[in-house]
From TrEMBL:
This is 6584_t:CDS:1. Pfam families: Metallophos. The keyword Transmembrane helix applies. Residues 57-288 form the Calcineurin-like phosphoesterase domain. InterPro entries: Calcineurin-like_PHP (IPR004843), Metallo-depent_PP-like (IPR029052), Metallophosphoesterase_PAP (IPR051558). Coiled coil: none annotated. The keyword Ribonucleoprotein does not apply. The chain crosses the membrane at residues 12-35.
Amino acid sequence: MIHTSKRPTPRCFYIITLSLFMSSLYITLSFGGLLPSIFVTTSKVYEEIYDADTLDFLIIGDWGNAGVGKDLKHGPQANVSKAMEYVANKHDSKFIVNVGDNFYKRSAKDYQGILSVNDSKWEEIWLKVYNSTNLRRLTWYSIAGNHDWYTNVTAQIDYSLTVNSRFFFPSLFYVRSTLFGKDLKLKAIWIHIDTNIFYYDVDSIVEIKMEGLKSNLLNFGMHTQQAVEEKFKWIEQSLIDNQDADYIFVIGHHPLIGICSQVNHMPRLLELLKVYYVSAYFSGHNHVLEYKAPTKASPVAFFISGAGCKTGFGCDGKDWGMPRGAYGL
Ligand SMILES: *[C@@H]1O[C@H](CO)[C@@H](O)[C@H](O)[C@H]1NC(C)=O
Ligand SMILES: *[C@@H]1O[C@H](CO)[C@@H](O)[C@H](O)[C@H]1NC(C)=O
Ligand SMILES: *[C@@H]1O[C@H](CO)[C@@H](O)[C@H](O)[C@H]1NC(C)=O
Ligand SMILES: *[C@@H]1O[C@H](CO)[C@@H](O)[C@H](O)[C@H]1NC(C)=O
């Protein structure tokens, strides 16, 4: 469990690991109409109120696959789901922060991501898998990872807006505000962003390895310097607008730990988070559970929670992490 203290005074994170079916990483903040175009970034803030002293939430990433050679009951995805149920029940978790790579291939012949709002993956590797007593009441605040871009990322947004808003994904970039604590005096701001356009140099993507990522980014005009500048400007404005918050969290798919923070435009994102005193940045992409603590030079705590159904390598730069091979949230 990780407790975060309020910004801008010292923020230390206390980490206790929890061994269950697998390892878990979760967080408690303690006292202390129309289908919008997905390119458009708005200044709308989605507001939530939690009548609770603490705001407990789960973070999961890179989850949508039963696991190689494993079935949906006993594979890593299902086991992580059981751990989530345990934690959500024990700590009365309020929602799930989904850091992207929502749908993988189910088999070698399958496709990445989803194709439409009616894709069978919605039921098979989302609704059915996380359908235990406590999990099925929680909203997933979602973003897209590269695997979601490989096919139809618009369909994921469309699903959220027209089929099931429990998969909360109204656009590629959005801001939420959560009030909680005594007399609802604590405010946490959540800035959900799409880091694909910062992480990838579209021109150098070899299409065959990245499936549709390149063509989709090109089709959406996300590859241009102008698009990149607009998104950075929107992020910066959102940070400026919310400096009164007790906590500011930014959520993007690609990590900002170690070497991962040095890729393409990622250093600019890192700099913005530091300048505006962001409490923490949550990511996935690398299939590990890792943490990098705030320092004097950087007030931001960095998390990677990308072990929802796969395990892999980290970013060389963590202060703490679960051993390689651990699944979890
Ligand atoms: C999932 O949990 C079951 C039962 O606890 C265990 O037998 C199985 O090996 C686990 N699967 C993975 C991939 O760890
Ligand atoms: C999805 O299914 C609904 C109900 O069967 C149907 O009306 C709709 O056209 C389908 N949409 C797509 C994109 O397949
Ligand atoms: C989820 O669980 C409920 C209650 O057991 C059940 O009615 C529903 O059909 C399940 N949904 C899915 C998609 O499996
Ligand atoms: C992708 O999804 C959108 C939104 O549901 C839909 O309108 C569009 O036809 C889909 N594209 C393809 C190529 O299937």
